[in-house]
Structure formats: structure tokens, C-alpha cells
């Protein structure tokens, strides 16, 4: 597994664009060109994911003081369920080992059309060392659950990090259950 920095001349940009459009619903989609613009305004790492020379996906990590946030993770359809997601999380937790590692995902809601997918996603993160924080948030009309790895969750730093993201219309609201 190898991470390659995504830049404007990224060789697999067409595949990355297609994956981003296919992997995320419209309310969660952020065009890769917008992610590159965002990376010039904030501490953000945009990685292409490779197995040897095969493009298998991408991830976006937001960095803020001693916290990192897995903002996006997408694996190409033909490479899903092959252990790449777990390998990537393991690699990222090593790269950012001095930081608290956080992620959010669509909140489990038994009335959601993709309920089973949400359950599998949560189980995936829990299997890979993430823990529940008790924090939830809503942005762009979607509710998410927040998990973290390695250290006690610093809720204030997480809120500060998200509120500092310069994304038009991005105004998360936080809640607990």
C-alpha cells in the first residue's frame, strides 16, 4: 500500500474524479478540484491510494494541531472488500500516530434507505480501532456519528477544527444522544 500526494497534475485524476462522483451522494460530494483549492487554505493532505501501480482510491485528511480527521475515504468498486480499507487505516494511523485520529460517517438510522451500509461502515471503523465518542453532527442536511482512535476524544478541538474549514455553507451543528 502506498500513498501518493494528489496535485493538479495527478496522473489518475480522471479516475479519482469518477470515483469521487460515484462514491458519495450529492450532499456529501466535494469535487477533487475543490479539495485541491481547500488544501491551499488549510492543513489538508490529499492522497491517492495505490497497490503497486494500481490506483485503488483516495483519502483526504484534515490536520489541526494534535488531531487529524478522515474527511474522505473512497475505494474503487473493484477493490472493495479486499482489505484495502483496513490497510489504509493502519497506514494512516502510523503516519499520524502522534495525533488523535477522528472520522465521521452517516449516523445509523433504521429508516435510512442505506441502513445496512451504515451498519457495515460503523462496524468497519470499530473493527479497525475506532471508538464511539458520543458526539454526532449535522452538516449539509446529513447527520453523522463521530468516532476516534488513540487517546481520549477532545471534543473542543474537533469542533474547532471543523469550524475552521473554509468550505462554503459548511456550518456543522453538534449534538449528543
Q: How would you explain this protein's 3D organization?
A:
- This protein has helices at 13-23, 32-39, 84-95, 115-127, 155-163; strands at 2-5, 44-51, 54-64, 67-75, 100-106, 131-139, 142-149, 173-176.
- It is globular and about 45 Å long.
- 25% of the residues are buried.
- Strands 1-2-3-4-5-7-6-8 form an 8-stranded mixed sheet, with helices on both faces.
- Helices cover 30% and strands 34% of the residues.
- The protein is α+β, with helices and mostly antiparallel strands and 177 residues long.
- It contains 5 helices and 8 strands.
- A hairpin with a 2-residue loop joins strand 2 (44-51) and strand 3.
Mean pLDDT: 94
Order of helices and strands: EHHEEEHEHEEHE
Question: How many H/I helical runs?
Answer: 5
Rg value: 15 Å
Shape: globular
Quick description:
The chain has 177 residues and is an alpha+beta fold.
Question: What's the SSE blueprint?
Answer:
Blueprint: E1 2-5, H1 13-23, H2 32-39, E2 44-51, E3 54-64, E4 67-75, H3 84-95, E5 100-106, H4 115-127, E6 131-139, E7 142-149, H5 155-163, E8 173-176
Parallel strand pairs: 4-5
Antiparallel strand pairs: 1-2, 2-3, 3-4, 5-7, 6-7, 6-8
